[in-house]
Amino acid sequence: MRILSIESSCDETAAAIVEDGRKVLSSVVASQVEEHRLYGGVVPEIASRRHAESISAVVAEALSQAWLSLSDIDAIAVTFAPGLIGALLVGVNFAKGLSLATGKPLIPVHHLRSHIAANYITHSELKPPFLCLVVSGGHSHIVMVEDYTKMRVIGATRDDAAGEAFDKAARTMGMPYPGGVELDKVAELGDDTAYTLPHPTIAGSPYDFSFSGLKTAVINLIHNAEQKGETINKENLCASFRKAVVGCLTDNLFKAAEDLGTDKIVLAGGVSANTLLRRETERICKEKGLGLFVPKLNLCGDNAAMVGSQGYYEYLSGNVAQSDLNAVATLPIDYR
Questions:
Q1: Which tens digits make up the pLDDT trace of 58-75?
Q2: 218: how many CB neighbours lie within 10 A of its CB?
Q3: How far apart are CA 151 and CA 138, in angstroms?
Q4: Domain coverage including residue 166
Q5: Is there a contact between 232 and 194 (Cβ–Cβ < 8 Å)?
Q6: What is the pLDDT of residue 40?
Q7: Domain with 99 in it: what CATH number?
Q8: Would you say residue 326 lies in a domain?
Q9: Which of 210, 236, 208 is nearest to 221 (CA)?
Q10: How far apart are CA 129 and CA 181, in angstroms?
Q11: CB 306 within 8 A of CB 22
């Protein structure tokens, strides 16, 4: 089954052709990073306009790269939630138009489920059930993936997401957008024991996260040093902050894995590209004898191939939308 998939939840306009949920025939991504870098982050109105300008060409290129036409496509999948509402609407409406014009089934896909599905492309042998840590700029979840479309949230952030904490700390240190990527690079050069930072926990909720206090701690540390005329060692602070965030993520993840008795750990989302997070989860999984699955680096960020992969399993489960499909800015991953 060949699915044309579309992704426009934030600042990447993407389209792909995926066969049977695992084989990528083409994948095209038009990035807006350079433009949004001027403003230090994504400007929703600009993102929506750029999606509208790019989406026709991106979809056409995806078909061209796969040497296919719309008549060769069996269904159309699109990210409908969650994300920036204006950006989502561009993709949803374009997909609805294609579905109406071609008579192909329309498959609504949840963005976070797509990030998990990036692992199905990377690891053809991976099948549920497994425990997944989904970490990105807007989300931090521990999810028990019981089946391809049946998921249960085990833990989640109570405030900021891990990726947001990385980005804001990096911005305070003067790094360009996207800050989390830059912070990760600089951290590789530093001493992660140089600065002592808090390790937040949630009383009574051992799997939940809280990154707001940790983010505030590092921002206050920087501001206090500036006021005193002291010099901050950026490499050491990046390394210490990254270690603190990753420590929170891995501690809760592996406590959940132990309590639930799972033997497969999966990483997903933009922050799954973080060097230390990948290194630490691999180390701990080896110590505990657990299987570890992480997406290829080019599948960690937003792309349409992951939408096509998840779309295949949504279709098999009977999740097909009608012409009244609408975009949704916020929707839990375990929605029914």
A1: 999 999 999 999 999 999
A2: 25
A3: 19
A4: 127-297
A5: no
A6: 84
A7: 3.30.420.40
A8: no
A9: 236
A10: 30
A11: no
Q: What is the pLDDT of residue 37?
A: 87
Determine whether 334 is exposed, middle or buried from the number of CB atoms within 10 Å of its CB (0-12, 13-18, 19+): middle
How far apart CA 279 and CA 83 sit, in angstroms, is 29
Looking at the structure, tell me whether residues 218 and 271 fall in a common domain: yes
End-to-end CA distance of the chain: 24
How many C-beta atoms surround the C-beta of residue 234 within 10 A? 18
Task: Give the C-alpha separation, 246 to 252, whole Å.
Answer: 10
Beta-carbon neighbour count of residue 14 at 10 Å? 29
User: Among all chains, which residue has been given the structure tokens 């949920």?
Assistant: 21
Where are the extended beta strands (E) located within the chain? 2-7, 12-19, 23-31, 75-81, 106-110, 130-135, 140-147, 150-156, 264-268, 291-293
95 and 151 both lie in a single domain: no
What does the alpha-carbon distance between residue 276 and residue 284 come to, in Å, rounded to a whole number?
12
* DSSP SS3 for 209: strand
Angstrom distance (rounded) from CA 3 to CA 23: 10
- Residues in the chain where the model's pLDDT stays below 70: none
Query: What pLDDT does 45 receive?
Result: 94
DSSP summary character for residue 261: T
Q: What is the pTM of this model?
A: 0.95
**210 touches 204 (CB < 8 A):** no
**293 and 304 fall within a common domain:** no
Query: What pLDDT is recorded for position 200?
Result: 87
Instruction: Assess whether 148 and 287 both reside in one domain.
Output: yes
Give the rounded distance of the alpha carbon of 135 from its chain centre: 6
Written as six digits, the tokens of 80 are 């409908």
Which pLDDT belongs to residue 177?
87
What is the rounded CA–CA span in Å between residue 96 and residue 113? Answer: 20
DSSP string, 69-110: -GGG--EEEEEEESS-HHHHHHHHHHHHHHHHHH---EEEEE
